[in-house]
Every structure is written in C-alpha cells, then in structure tokens.
Amino acid sequence: MVMYKNAKQLVSRKWLLALLISVVLPASFVVAQCKSYKLSDRGDTLNCVDMQGLRQGPWIVRIEPVRLDPGREEEGYYIDGKKDGIWRNYNLQGDVISVERYKWGMLNGKSQYYSVLGLEREESWLAINPTKAYDTFEVPDLYDPTLYRNVVVKNEGRSLRHGTWTYYDPTTGFVSKSEEFIRDSASNPLAMFGVGLSKNKRLPADTAKQGKKSEKPSVVQDWEKKNSGKKKVEVRDGNTGY
Q1: Which residue has the higher pLDDT, 55 or 184?
Q2: Residue ranges of the domains in the chain?
Q3: 195: number of Cβ within 10 Å
C-alpha cells in the first residue's frame, strides 16, 4: 500500500493522474479509429486512414523527385478523404512553393504560388457543393459588365475561377497583371488585350428615332445660304439637252 505523508501530496498525485488520462485517452481513441497511421517526433498522430479507407486528420505527404519533377512535401488536413482548409507545399529544401485553401476537396478561396524570388501569383477559386447535381450561375455579358444572365450547368465537381487573379514580378513585388473572373467567366474578356470596359457604356443613339437630322456638308450649307430668298434657282442636273 502506498502511504501519503499529507493530503496535499494525495491531491497532487490525483491531479497528475487525471492529466495523464486526459492526454492519453483521446490519443488512444484517435488511434483506435485508424486502420493505419504514423506518429510524429512529438507523438502526434499523422496520416490516419480510417476503417472505411478514408484519410482523416492531419497529413504530411512527401513526393520524391521523378524525372523533371523536383519533388515536394505537402501538409494539410483531410475530412472524409477530401482536403479541407489550408494546405502548404514545400520544395525538398524546405521553401514554401504554394499555400492553397480547400473545401470539399476542391480549391476554394485565395491560393498563393511562390518561386525562390518571392510571390508570383495569387488565384481566387470557388468550390461548388458536390452534393448538388446542377447549379445556377450568373454569367456576365461579354460587352456590358452591368448585364447578367442565369445559366444552369451540370456540377462536374470542380472549382471555378472566381474573383481577382493577380500576377506579380517576384523581384520587385509589383503587380504585373490582374484579371477578374465571375464563376469561371472573365468579367472583361478584352482585358488580356489591355482594353477596358466602361461600366456606364451606352449603345450609339438612334438619331432617326429622336427626329434629329444629320448635319449637312459645308458645301451644301454655303449653296443654300447663297441662294436663299431667290424665287428661281438654276441647278445643273446633268442633262445634255439631247
């Protein structure tokens, strides 16, 4: 029988035991849910595959170099076999090459891509709920960005370009190009040619409907002014008299 010198020592032992139980039991519970898993250097459970064969929880994946692929290492979180939240990719030297955000296993939100010199581009994505067989999108008009039309499309389980895509000069950090997308359609399809569309763009006015006469040539105006008030005006009509 273990004898305690005082009540204070007994309380301290009970507190330590409770702490160990609170740490060990959840870890044991997680391991029990995994058909296979790995342990990190700190004892954390990684790369768990559950009894249904689905990836769950935090994962670290190392891809070795193959031919022209220099290899990489990626880390992030899985929910029911699908990537979720922030995923980071590193080269095998430990430098960040991308930071991506996922939902339902598809890109969703902002994603950044880097070279050894710095940030190269920032993309914006919209994930479509895979439980929907079809979805309705508002597609902008090609020539008037203030007009939209509803289009029903089949859900193919992919992400759509949505929002601002920005390209940077990694050596200076300045923006070199920017594009806008609305549900995979360019809000300005002429942007790649450096042409902007005015939000207040109007079609040419129909002067015939407004009753406005077209302006006469200056030669005709001079002739009318010279011969105004005359009862008879001789005009050559091309007749030769034959």
Answers
A1: 55
A2: 27-94, 118-199
A3: 9
List, in sequence order, the alpha helices (H) in 113-162: none
| Tokens of residue 133, six digits | 């067989």
Over the chain, what is the mean pLDDT?
76
Quick one: DSSP state of residue 133?
A: S
Closest to 138 in 3D by CA, of 124, 152, 127, 149: 149
- Encoded tokens for 199: 């939000």
- Cβ distance 148 to 167 under 8 Å? no
Q: How many CB atoms lie within 10 A of CB 103?
A: 20
Instruction: Give 44-73 pLDDT, tens digit per residue.
Output: 999 999 999 999 999 999 999 998 899 999
| Identity of residue 119 | L
Sorted by sequence, the CB contacts under 8 Å of residue 71 that are 6+ apart come out as 62, 63, 64, 65, 91, 92
**β-strand partners of 36:** 49
SS3 state at 17: helix
CB of 99 closer than 8 Å to CB of 120: no
